[in-house]
Every structure is written in structure tokens, then in C-alpha cells.
Amino acid sequence: MKVRGPKGTYDVLPADQPLRELVRTTAAAIFSSAGYQRIGTPAFEDTGLFERGVGSSSDIVRKEMYTFEDKGGRSLTLKPEGTAPVVRAYIQHGMHKLPQPVKLWYAERMYRFENPQAGRFREHYQLGAEAIGSGDPSLDAEMIMMLSDLYEALEVPGVELRLGSMGCPACREPFQKELSSFLDERAGAFCPDCLERARLNPLRVFDCKVEQCVAELERAPLLVDSLCQSCQDDFSALRGYLDSLGRSYRVDGTLVRGFDYYTKTTFEFECARLGAQKGIGGGGRYDRLVEELGGAATPAVGFGTGLERIVLALESEGISVPEVGIGVFLVTMGPEARELVVPLVHRLRQEGLSVDMDYAGRKMKGQMKQADRLGAAFTVIIGEEEIAAGKAAVKDMGSGRQEQVPLARLEDEIVLRLTQDGADGQKGSR
Ligand SMILES: [Zn+2]
Ligand SMILES: [Zn+2]
């Protein structure tokens, strides 16, 4: 029997790390330049947090959560999304006392029991941001632009923005009645899931991916057409900001989230390269969630974007990041050379330099090959002859040029070479 990782999970192998690291560091730079600070929350939370924070009628809570009972009899859930835990932390740590809005970002693993498909996994990584404590539409624009800037900086191809509004309780309640009667009149045309959604929360029908339902919904009334004055004003203010920022978008009235605590702005970025399920990231305003989770009434807005989705889109373009090679590889022949080199390697590493040597008993040729595989900028060769002559051979792996350096000066020479011309072993150019 061969052991394998569980279905829907994957290993991040060393070769996959540089591109993911690039996504993370690019995101961190963009988010922190907008004043967002990183927060981390636990891998699991009380199940009730998501029932209240995502909504018990959502597909996520109904079908996709990893919920388990621990040995103390508590119902816990591996987090399926990032917003509810951050809001829980905001309330728990009294962040309402800080200057508002409190701006937070995260890079965390999330868990959803869904059928694995391209770029969608049961354990996946998500980057997200939340700004809690302001209802100003310019903050919605800031959020949208941070995500837009991230895709642009990474050169994610073919990204488009859909924008919607789901109003507030004042305009949504009459709309829901209108939508309900539309659905009742055409009950026969919808899938069983939609009929259940119609009963639990009519706005959720817009989540349906079944072709016939999507077609039928083209004639449905839209919330964006029924907004109250205040919601209309905020929506047009946001659109004005996006226009002045030069960010193109398409207003899509079907872009709604079916819970009372989601309000006003919703947005989703799509990438045509991702196939049928084009969503790459999105978010919206949730002015009533903090209150729903036990805090004071506090407006907020946020987004999330899947790391795997971004990586998939970049790979579809053939974008990759080369692995970083090491700085220097010390080739040793004979026990005397090793005696000299073992402490030298350690001292160089302590100076923060990237250094390696042979641990597999390879012959000279094999060691040179290993140095090449590791992407070493140069090698230092020390054998019995070199020790007898008091010199080491230093070979530049790029140019192939080789020179003799006295052993007494070797350490200084290595340090000089590795720090001077930024030769920190970037393999990419070779
Ligand atoms: Zn409204
Ligand atoms: Zn349906």
C-alpha cells in the first residue's frame, strides 16, 4: 500500500515555492502600503461562528464545512473562509477602541469539502483583507484597487471586474418579496437546490450554476434596480471613484450575497484563463456582521483571493519564477580538506551567506555537477594538492574562469564575491 495525501490536498514542493512566495510578498507590499497590518487566526473555530458569520443557509455551511467534535465535546470547524474569524478577533480584542477603520490582512489556509477541480482544493490558501469601522464608499474603492493592483503587479492575464450592490435592509426586504413571487411563479423551471434556496433565502438563487436556472434568472428582477436613495448614492459614489481611478468594471445585478449582514458593495474579479469557474477573488461590504457576531454596529468591507487560482492563472501564461541558487559550493577532496572546509562553511553561513558542500562522498566531477544543480554562483576547490600549495581554486560557474586564491585569504575572498556584485546565487539568468 502506497501512502498518499488525502483527496483534495496537495504538497507545495520546493519548485512551487518561488512563484507562491512572489504572490505573497507582492500582496504584503501592496496591502501594507495601504496601511493594512497582518493578522493570523486559528485553523479551527467554534462551528457557531460560521453558522452566524457565513449563514446557515449558505452552501458552505450546509454542505462544505469540515466540522468535527473534539474530545471535550465541542463542535469545531476548520475555517472555510477568512472574514468571520477576523471579525471575531476584532470583537474579542476590543479593536473598536483603536482608530477606525482597523485595516487587517491575512494569508491563511482554508478548508472546504467540495469536489476538487482546477485550482480548487479542499485545503487551499487564501489572501484576504478586511477594513472594519467605516462605511465610506472610498474605502470600498480602496479595497477593490488593492486587489486590482495585486493582479496587475503579478501580471495576471485577462482580469475583469464585476460590481454589484445588494442594498440595505430597507431596500432589500421589499425586493426579496418581489423575487420570491417571481420564483414561485416559475417554480417548475428551477433545480431542487434553487427551490430550497427560494425557501431559505431567495437571493441565494443567484449562486446557482445550473444552466437552466441561470437562463431563467436573466428575467428575474434585480436588486441594483431597486436600491433606496442612500444605497444608490453610495453605489454611484463608488462608481465615481473607480472611474476616476481608471478601473474598468461591469455592473452585474446578479452579484449578490444572500445574508442580511452583507450590504451594499459586492465585487468579483474574473480571469478568463481559469475556464468555466472564472472567479479569482472578490468581496464586498458587510455592515451588519460585527453586530451579528456580538459587537457594536460597525460597518466593514473586505475581500479574499485564492492563492491557487492566481498561481493557475499565472502558469497558464507560462509565468514562472526561477529557483534561487546557492552562493558558493565548496568542493573538497580528502579528509584534510574537509577538516578545513567544515568550519569554514559554518562561519560563512553565520555571516548570512548561502553555502553548501558535498555530503554524499562524490568524486570531484560529481561535486562539480552537484554545484551546478544547486545553482552555485561559483565553486571553491580544495584538495590535497591545494592544501600542500596553500591555495584554493575558485571557479566562476557563469564564465568558467578559474583563479588561485591563497588559503589565508580564501574566507575574505568568498565574502567579497558573495556580497560585492550581489552575486547571491540568482540562478535565473543562467
Ligand atoms: Zn438601501
Ligand atoms: Zn438552480
Outline the secondary-structure elements.
Blueprint: H1 17-33, E1 37-38, E2 44-46, H2 47-55, H3 59-64, E3 66-69, E4 75-78, H4 83-92, E5 102-111, E6 123-132, H5 137-154, E7 159-165, H6 169-185, H7 192-200, H8 211-217, H9 229-245, E8 250-251, E9 263-271, E10 279-285, H10 289-292, E11 300-306, H11 307-316, E12 328-332, H12 335-350, E13 355-357, H13 364-373, E14 378-382, H14 384-389, E15 391-396, E16 402-406, H15 407-420
Parallel strand pairs: 1-5, 7-8, 12-13, 12-14
Antiparallel strand pairs: 2-4, 3-4, 5-6, 6-11, 7-9, 9-10, 10-11, 14-15, 15-16
Helix pairs in contact: 1-5, 2-4, 5-9
The structure holds zinc ion (2 copies).
Key terms:
430 residues; BirA Bifunctional Protein, domain 2; Rossmann fold; 2 domains; five-stranded mixed beta sheet; 15 helices; disordered C terminus; binds zinc ion
Helix content: 25-40%
**Treating each run of at least 4 consecutive H or I residues as one helix, how many helices?**
15
Name the CATH architecture of the largest domain: 2-Layer Sandwich
Which ions, cofactors or small ligands are bound in this entry? zinc ion
In CATH, the homologous superfamily of the largest domain goes by the name: Bira Bifunctional Protein, Domain 2
Shape: elongated
What does this structure look like?
This protein has 430 residues and is of the alpha+beta class. The protein folds into 2 domains: 14-168 and 228-316, BirA Bifunctional Protein, domain 2 (2-Layer Sandwich); 328-420, 3-Layer(aba) Sandwich (Rossmann fold). 40% of the residues lie in helices and 21% in strands. The strands form 3 sheets. It has an 8-stranded mixed sheet with strand order 1-5-6-11-10-9-7-8, with helices on both faces. Strand 9 and strand 10 form a beta hairpin. The protein starts with 16 loop residues before the first helix and ends in a 10-residue tail after the last helix. The model is unreliable at 422-430 (pLDDT under 50). The structure holds zinc ion (ZN) (2 copies).
